[in-house]
Amino acid sequence: MAGRPPEERLVRVFPRRTSHTPDDALAFVGDPPLWLPADVSAVHVSCTFTWDRPEAERIAEAWERQYPGRVTLSGPAYGHAGGDFTPGLYVRQGITFTSRGCPRHCCFCQVPARAGPLRLLDSIPEGHIVQDNNFLACPPEHRRKVYAMLGRQKRAAVFAGGIDARLVTDEIADEFRAIRVSEAFLACDSTAAIRPLYEAAWRLRFLGRRKLRCYVLIGFSGELLSQAEKRLEAVWEAGCLPFAQLYRSPEGERQYDLDWLRLQRKWARPAAMFASHRVEVGADA
Prior knowledge:
This protein has eight helices and twelve strands.
């Protein structure tokens, strides 16, 4: 879904609300409201996750009854690769993409199949939350432009798309040291990822645990609960604050038992992690 002309009244609809969902007057979640927006040019139903497709298709039909011939259903769940990025259109203001795709081919990740290899956007859209799939894979001159843009923002930078630990060098650490960083997310999605995580976390240790976050995919490819817990503990020992994510296939069919759900909740809540490791709030900054 590309950007829109400024005069167009485009309604965007989403099957579920997330932290990325826009919150302007023309963004909706679910069925049409009682009071419908007027002078609507088009309705775009945008679906990110494949397991939300049945709900997205249902609400697309509901909106089609209100705006015949003006409803389009698309999004990453339908293979849309993403083109130019318009801030605030399909994600809330403050989030930005400066590149698309990723040069890696991780077996659990849908990005290469959907978005293809890494490609840079022609412009650097404003925003303090950088959601690029692999920002460090971008060339130095592109990163410099992004840092300059981040320097104009009122809020400190959040590298939420994931920082590739294998690409964190002393030079990258110096780049991050030179800007205001609120959070930077690494990733540790397998046992093989632990060593590069430790090396990257050591180089970025000046950020402190509360700013140095780490996505941890758990439950993939037959992983046992004990193995997932051991890896989460290793991420903590590396000096990061883990963010556990239960694996869901594109079909989203796996059902996790209570022990898995408890593990995920514990390792996604900073207060629970600090409490279980007997660290006082504020003491492990």
